[in-house]
Amino acid sequence: MPTIAPLTAADHTDWLPLWQAYLDFYESAVPTEVTERTFDRLVEDRELHGALARDAAGRAVGLVHWLLHPATWSTAPYCYLEDLFVAPDARSGGIGRALIGHVRDRATEAGAAKVYWLTREDNATARLLYDRVADATGFVHYEVTLRKEP
What we know:
By secondary structure, this protein is α+β, with helices and mostly antiparallel strands. The chain has four helices and five strands; from the N terminus they run βααβββαβα. α3 (95-109) links the parallel β4 (78-86) and β5 (114-116).
């Protein structure tokens, strides 16, 4: 079973390749300054939170990022699981489930009413897990881009 621990400044070199692989999976890119600021914000652990999963040998094999926010349909906050990634060679070993469980535990400790996340409709591998640990809501995601990162 993996060990999961909050991100620390010392985790940067282990986190960065997982973050880049996650962005590559979604055919996305962010500027270096956004990546570095994101990591700093995750380590500060004020609004954004992050954790790494490590295998028995101590190798970083997964990451998860989340945030808590107020909600209009609840007096308790909601927890948005924003990023979840497991290295391809470490998949199907319970790491994704463990990372979701980690966020669920943190959200429970914070008094959140629910944990929710998005994924691409065609992300069939991840959806096999998601369908086992959560309820599909049937909602469709829309967004309006207000600004592009530099």
